[in-house]
Specification:
The protein is α/β, with parallel strands linked by helices and about 475 residues long. It folds into two domains: about 300 residues, Beta-lactamase (3-Layer(aba) Sandwich); about 150 residues, STAS domain (Transcription Regulator spoIIAA). Helix content is about 45%, strand content about 15%. It contains 17 helices and twelve strands. The strands form three sheets. A five-stranded antiparallel sheet has the order 2-1-7-6-5. About 5% of the residues have low confidence. It catalyses: L-glutamine + H2O = L-glutamate + NH4(+). Homotetramer. InterPro entries: Beta-lactam/transpept-like, Glutaminase, STAS_dom, STAS_dom_sf. Belongs to the glutaminase family. One of its GO terms (molecular function) is glutaminase activity.
């Protein structure tokens, strides 16, 4: 059975792939050589499960997506006071490569080039003649940190590194401007070299999604379980990404997409839903701001269709499945005969009950659906008790109904224990809502098919119906 989330990601990538606007970055010669058709999407949820579509295994250079990571490393090493003395946290409202400082002669934030170069300089020793070996050692530590965030060893693209170093006149001007203001305490050339190297690390969209989820999880890598950075640093990084990560397009991004994010001129976008998931997108055609055209479109769809805007006021419970058990503890109906009793005594483990709790939005529904899908070969009937669910949003409701229809097609059955009519009420409220997500399943499109799954008052009622369903399958009329 194809996952509902996989099906949706296939649907959205097919839709966004049609946009051929924008152009690859040509001011760095090596980047001008990339395939403009490349397009990959990855989503990593809080437990480390990754959904990938398209060119998710294609490596590209991280470029400016490195900026929040180096900023996190500097905060971890030096502390807030020392870093804040040198670098502001205010949106610049200017292009990423603007030669820009505030009234205290600080770069306005660490997401523009001036701030990123100064951040890199702060990792180096405060001397005017930094040995190449020292830069190598600091870079090795930086790569180790990035790799810990991604959950695998990352490596340098030497061709891109050489190309950036050979054509970086504007960045060199920025570095020496900062040096003239007295805010760089080290060798400007060493700072530039470290900055060019960090931008030239190879990543995939899977890597970006895991990095994003590591930050979303308060610094814990969901794949390795390792605490890579502390929660306070993760919080600061998310805050600055929210206000400054998309450069002079940050305001529109926050209002329409609502995810802390960082783009890179290599075509990547990293987006994060705090506490829940990380998103990595790759498509090298860029808009006038230097952001991936398809990447932005993809993130808009994900945010709108799946309700991922960080200011979505629906509460979220990560512990969605309260308990799982079969129906062995329920009594067989007294009026059933010996054949029915014999069958149910041997097959009752083919009916499984899942009790959910909390509030159900995309993240919780995804986790529950993945558990259901993993059990499908072992059960004929799934009973889903949502009596402890407080809120179910349109996205989660659509996912549940899609899952019910998918089971119907397999000759299996899903039933809801919904004594308060939460799902029915949700369908009634949103039946004609033109903003509902199109999850690429005909039964769940706008103008929803009015056939609802069976809604029962209690688990016992559902068990009786489930047993009757099994008997019908075993002993057809």
């Amino acid at each position: 059975m194809t996952s509902l989330v996989d099906g949706y990601l296939s649907h959205i990538t097919s839709a966004c792939a049609a946009d051929l606007s924008g152009a690859v970055a040509d001011y760095i010669p090596e980047l001008a050589q990339v395939d403009p058709e490349g397009y990959g999407l990855s989503l990593c949820v809080h437990d480390g499960h990754i959904y990938s579509r398209g060119d998710s295994s294609v490596e590209f250079t991280i470029q400016s997506i490195s900026k929040p990571l180096t900023y996190a490393l500097a905060l971890s090493r030096l502390g807030y006071v020392q870093v804040d003395t040198k670098i502001g946290v205010e949106p610049s409202g200017e292009a990423f490569n603007e030669i820009s400082v505030d009234d205290r002669l600080r770069p306005k934030n660490p997401m523009i080039n001036a701030g990123a170069i100064l951040t890199a300089s702060m990792l180096l020793p405060p001397v005017r003649d930094v040995a190449p070996q020292t830069v190598d050692e600091i870079f090795d530590e930086l790569v180790a940190f990035y790799s810990a965030c991604a959950g695998r060893q990352l490596s340098l693209d030497p061709a891109v590194y050489g190309s950036e170093a050979a054509t970086g006149a504007r960045n060199r001007a920025i570095a020496y401007m900062l040096d003239s203001f007295g805010v760089i305490d080290t060798d400007p050339e060493a700072a530039l070299d470290l900055y060019y190297r960090q931008c030239s690390l190879r990543v995939t969209t899977d890597d970006l999604a895991v990095i994003g989820c590591t930050i979303a999880n308060g610094g814990v890598n969901p794949r390795t379980g390792r605490q890579v950075l502390n929660q306070e640093v993760a919080q600061r990084v998310l805050s600055v990404m929210t206000t400054c990560g998309m450069y002079d397009g940050a305001g529109d991004w926050v209002s329409s997409v609502g995810l802390p994010a960082k783009s890179g001129v290599g075509g990547g976008i990293l987006a994060i839903l705090p506490g829940q998931l990380g998103i990595g997108v790759y498509s090298p055609r860029l808009d006038r701001h230097g952001n991936s055209v398809r990447g932005i479109d993809t993130c808009r769809h994900l945010s709108t269709d799946l309700g991922l805007h960080m200011f979505n006021l629906t509460r979220e419970s990560r512990v969605t499945i309260r308990s799982i058990h079969d129906i062995a503890d329920f009594e067989i109906a007294e009026d059933w005969g010996d054949i029915e009793r014999l069958y149910l005594r041997t097959c009752r483990d083919r009916v499984r009950i899942y009790e959910l709790q909390g509030d159900l939005t995309f993240s919780g529904a995804e986790s529950a659906m993945r558990r259901f899908e993993g059990d499908l070969d072992d059960v004929d009937v799934l009973i889903v008790d949502i009596s402890r669910i407080g809120v179910i949003d349109p996205v989660a409701r659509t996912m549940i109904l899609n899952f019910k229809h998918a089971l119907d097609d397999r000759g299996q059955r899903a039933m809801l224990v919904d004594p308060d009519g939460v799902v029915r009420a949700s369908v009634d409220r949103h039946r004609n809502d033109s903003t509902l997500p199109d999850l690429a399943a005909p039964q769940a499109l706008r103008g929803f098919d009015p056939t609802l799954p069976h809604v029962h008052g209690t688990i016992a009622d559902a068990v009786i119906d489930a047993e009757a369903f099994q008997l019908k399958q075993r002993y057809p009329a």
